[in-house]
Amino acid sequence: MAATNTNSSSQMDPNSGFCSHTKIFRSLRPSISLPPSSQPLSATQFALSLLHSTTTTNFSETPFLINAGNGHRVTYSDFLHQTKSLAFSLQKQYSLSKGDVAFILSHNSLQIPSLYFSLLSLGVVIAPANPDDSISELTHQIQLTRPIIVFATSHTSDKLPPNFRTILIDSPEFSSLLTQFSNTDSIGSDVVVNQSDIAAIIYSSGTTGRNKGVLLSHGNFISRITAYRAIDPFETGIQQRVSLIRRPLFDSYCIVNMMKSATMGGTLVLAETSDFESVLETAHNYNLNYCPVPPSFILAMVKSELTNHDVRSMRFLLTCGAPLGKQVLANFKEKFPNIEVLDAYGLTEGGPVASMRFPDEINQLGSVGRLVEVVEAKIVDPSTGELLSPGQRGELWVRGPTTTKGYIGDEKATAEAIDSEGWLKTGDLCFFDSDGFLFIVDRLKDMIKYDGFQVPPAELEHLLMSNNAIADAAVVPYPDEEAGQIPMAFVVRKPGSTITDAQIMDYIAKQVEPIKKIQRVAFVDSIPKSAAGKILRRELVNRAIFNP
């Protein structure tokens, strides 16, 4: 974080964290310490040092990873041995060295964490991709990163361009790399990795354009792990943390969550599918007590009878990716009083968790919590650039050691997103209240411009989802000659529902001011969403315009 002078510190409101002198919001969470940024340190070294220093019990036979589909597991002893052997093998047999880029394309696999930890220990840059991306998208990502080696599986390798040195993770060759060396005492011991070195290239979700490669350093990962540990409800060690990984380990949140669990001696259950029923079944089979889920999962739980599922093991559900309505959270708390919903906010470029609402902050329903310690923020008027105070809406800017260095091969996008002082422009319309709690209104680029007014789609989506006849919904702008744009809703009916477009428009009209009325409705089988659970509005806008 930027240094704080005495003058600005004296003018910081202890309730909101807002400094009237600098117009900057600072964290109200307990302080945490980070290693000196000048200290050579890889993300692997840092994470494993925490595992050995903070885990008081004998964790060697504790399962680190469990495959939800077949029950196969990897203990911490296995994981550490495999990571050391793999690092030694890749360095000696494949001549991988610091600065090389490794492209990784795989669904959830028990071998992926060892692969990441071993590559990072060598200073090799990991570039994990979504295995469900199209060949065109993957080709674009490979052109951005220019890897010298690819790790794939027999199920994903056919998506790759030819003539790449490829190792199949599900092959006997790779299995031998995990076990053939047993006397390696340290991982990457002869490699000096600095915290400023690039550790990973993470592809942005592409909800507003083509994927960009976000550059994350070892220091970024170290600060993210530290901050995320500080806000984890299981950090006290009272109970073994058994967490769910719903999707392949290709985004920053899943990777940091995996690393953080490794530092705490927790157990990760890797799911092969992430649909509602499968997650509930996995929770029952493996006694999950911590589940990161999209907002749609919370909504589904509120509306479901859950007659066939036992969710008594669940203690915490962490949701992010889109704002959750206050009424939805209140209904969930009434139905499941023993399950806490942790609402969080984050982004690949600025930290997978930049703020979080704790269980004891139940009175702040609808908020995504207070800033984590390593993050500071500003609220900026998108039209004038004026810095705003608590209660005022504007674009959220964040800064800290978790913030990306920029986008690979795209200086223009980097300059547009990050200013000369290191402030990242999130593109999200937000405000802080007088107690320092952050509220997400909507994406600035998603706002509907109706006759000079701005209409936030998320507000209308929350209202739509409160209707028991609706299973899912999204609202997008539709071109209009007089108003410029009007709100259009895409709606997924619940099974058996016969609700009409007129009924939906009337339902919303009774609850909003005239400029926010929904004026068009289309019924669909599903709402397109990114892997992170964000609505892919561009797809719906294109569908509305070109297939009315």
Structure description:
This is 4-coumarate--CoA ligase. GO terms for molecular function: CoA-ligase activity. This protein is 28% helix and 23% strand. It is of the alpha/beta class. A 5-stranded mixed β-sheet has the order 11-12-13-14-15. It has a 4-stranded mixed β-sheet with strand order 2-1-10-9, sandwiched between helices. The chain has a 4-stranded parallel β-sheet with strand order 4-3-5-6, sandwiched between helices. The protein has helices at residues 6-10, 43-54, 76-93, 112-121, 135-145, 172-179, 218-230, 252-264, 276-286, 295-303, 326-335, 411-417, 457-465, 501-509, 537-546; strands at 63-67, 73-75, 101-105, 125-129, 149-152, 166-168, 198-203, 213-217, 242-245, 267-270, 290-293, 316-319, 340-347, 351-356, 370-371, 376-380, 394-399, 406-407, 424-432, 438-443, 448-450, 453-455, 470-480, 484-493, 520-523.
Uncertain residue segments? 1-7
Report the sheet with the most strands, covering strand number, pairing sense and barrel closure: 5 strands, mixed
Q: List the domain count as a whole number.
A: 2
How many β-strands, per DSSP?
25
Q: What is the CATH topology classification name of the largest domain?
A: Rossmann fold
Distance linking N and C termini:
49 Å
Helix content estimate: 25-40%
Q: CATH top level of the largest domain?
A: Alpha Beta
Number of helices: 15
- Spell out the CATH superfamily of the largest domain: ANL, N-terminal domain
Family: Belongs to the ATP-dependent AMP-binding enzyme family.
Protein name: 4-coumarate--CoA ligase
Domain AMP-dependent synthetase/ligase: 58-407
GO molecular function: CoA-ligase activity
